[in-house]
Structure formats: C-alpha cells, structure tokens
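Our preliminary data section would be incomplete without showing what the modeling component actually yields. Below, a chain of 200 amino acids is followed by its predicted structure, encoded as tokens that our downstream tools consume directly.
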Amino acid sequence: MSRHNGTVFIVDDDDDFRDSMQWLLESDDLPVQSFSSARDFLSNYKGDKGCMLLDVRMPEINGLALQQIMLERDIRLPIVVLSGHGDIPMAVTAMKNGAIDFLEKPFDDEVLIPLVQNALKKADEMFADRQQQEQVRKLYDSLSRREREVMALVVSGKANREIAEELGISPKTVEVHRSRVMSKMRAESLPELVNQSAQL
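Predicted structure:
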C-alpha cells in the first residue's frame, strides 16, 4: 500500500476507543496523535500535515463545531467523521461541511486503514495546492500597483485598447505592463494567468 507523509489526528472523548484506534494505526506504521476533546486538539495542534478522525458527538465542542472553528482558523485537514448509530444526521452535516468520509461505530478494523490512507493522500494534494497558492501570492506581491490593475483587467477579458482607455494610458504602455505581469507571474499564457488570479 502506498505511503503518505502525515500524522493521523484522532479526536474522540472515548478513551478506550481512542486507544484502540491509535494502537491499530500505529501497528500499520502510521504516526498518530490523539486528543480527548476538541479543545485539547486546538490547544496542541502545531500545523502539521495529516488527516483527522473526528467523533461527532463530544461534550463542550462537538465535531461539527470543531469543523467550523477549523475553517475559521484555516486549519485544513481531510476529516473522516466517526459516528454512533444515532449520529448519522450529524455525520451527513459534517460531510456537507467538507468531511471526506464517515465511519459508523462500531466498524471493522480493516475498513479504517484504507480510509486513512485515502485521507492522507488527500492531505498530500491539499498541501501541494497550498504551496502552489503561496507561490502565486508571492509572485503577485512582487507586482506594482499599476501592474495589478492591468492584470485584473486582462484576466477579466478586456483588450489592450479597452484597458488603455479605462486606465488613461496608451495601448503601448498597456503592452509593456502586460508583458511585465506575464514575466513576474511566470505565466506562459493568458489561461494560466487567469488560473493564477483565481488562486489569489
């Protein structure tokens, strides 16, 4: 089975269940950190890449509330929701909020490992996407104010002549700015520049 770098974060208030999951995952050579509450996780999470196994029904801050807090704090982890028999509606809501899968308790051990491997693969993709976004943001930050104005109008589909009229500069000057924008953004084509703009 393919390996992915990343930690499995278990957030569940049931000590025995949490310990058994940790033992199972560690026996498959997966790094694990477990937390007995949402508050415990939020206090100790250091921004590491990985995925989360999240119990929906917990005291104080339940799984759905933790999802919302993670969104607000820009903590991006693929989440597999764990739900008891009565918690299916909550699990469905969690899926709508971005969880990638859910497991109904009790479940077979063999079911868990492939789900976690899939979540870690997703974490790899999310990490790569984030690095790409940060790179685009750095390139964008290198543009002058005028170059940003030109870029915004270029990606909105306006021709050089229209941009010149809107900004009160000559079409030739627009061409110069446009060329600089493409160079600084390292964009090979207009579609690539549009795609970069969407990541900002």
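The mean pLDDT is 92. Residues 109-141 form the longest helix (33 residues). Preliminary results of this kind motivate Aim 1 of the renewal.
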